[in-house]
Amino acid sequence: GQQVQQSPTSLVLQEGENAELQCNFSTSLNSMQWFYQRPGGSLISVFYNPSGTKQSGRLTSTTVIKERRSSLHISSSQITDSGTYLCAMERSNTNKVVFGTGTRLQVLP
Amino acid sequence: EAAVTQSPRSKVAVTGGKVTLSCHQTNNHDYMYWYRQDTGHGLRLIHYSYVADSTEKGDIPDGYKASRPSQENFSLILELASLSQTAVYFCASGYTEVFFGKGTRLTVV
Fold it and tell me: Which residue of A has its CA nearest to B3?
């Protein structure tokens, strides 16, 4: 089964609205990371967040390792935020980094 | 910022032919990874390596080989390319926090 569940799978916002993306893990993990990808583009690390809360501009990530979940909050969304957001975890007791299938975000003017 | 360079950026291969995808990192990372990305599947781990001259199987290794001749270089080899291997391939390096190359779009015809 899917070890990394992301929700929602897709999201459409009006510019200026906030977004909350969720990532849940079915196994224990050492750390997790959020990535951003434009269609046909590379993956850009948004947050490396093994635990706690991190903020960068309009983006905030909160990871609770014991509860096996992480969230990415985007405030005052902009059209340029459109793309796919992927979360990834490093599984405990392995060297493997496993990805979710992503949340496709579309911000409309 | 970590630098991971993939080559070629795109390739068209014939079924049954041999394909080699190359990856070079300049960050002194021990860990390197090869992923493939398909619509609806997110990123799936093919092979990874944590030391030169050694590779490990990921979650979908069948039909692929990997080679790590040095710490900086990690190649993915398709000995007999098949139509089902049409995908975008990403190389990454790092441990817990990973950094990605720009991807290689492979089309097998």
Answer: A44
Query: What's the mean pLDDT in B69-86?
Result: 97
Confidence grade of residue A40 (pLDDT, cut at 50, 70, 90): confident
> Is pLDDT of B35 > 90?
yes
Residues 6+ apart with CB under 8 A from B37: B43, B44, B87, B88, B89, B90, B103
Q: How far apart are CA A90 and CA B29, in angstroms?
A: 16
Is-contact A23 A32, C-beta < 8 A? Answer: yes
pLDDT band at A30 (very low <50, low <70, confident <90, very high): confident
Closest-approach residue (CA) in chain B for A32:
B96
Q: A16, A23, A24: which is closest to A81 by C-alpha?
A: A16
Contact call for residues B95 and B33 (beta carbons, < 8 A): no
For residue B58, which residues of chain A lie inside 8 Å, CB to CB?
Answer: 96
B56 touches chain A (CB under 8 A): yes
Whether residue A102 and residue B42 make contact (CB cut-off 8 A), yes or no, is yes
Q: Which tokens belong to B9?
A: 């950026």
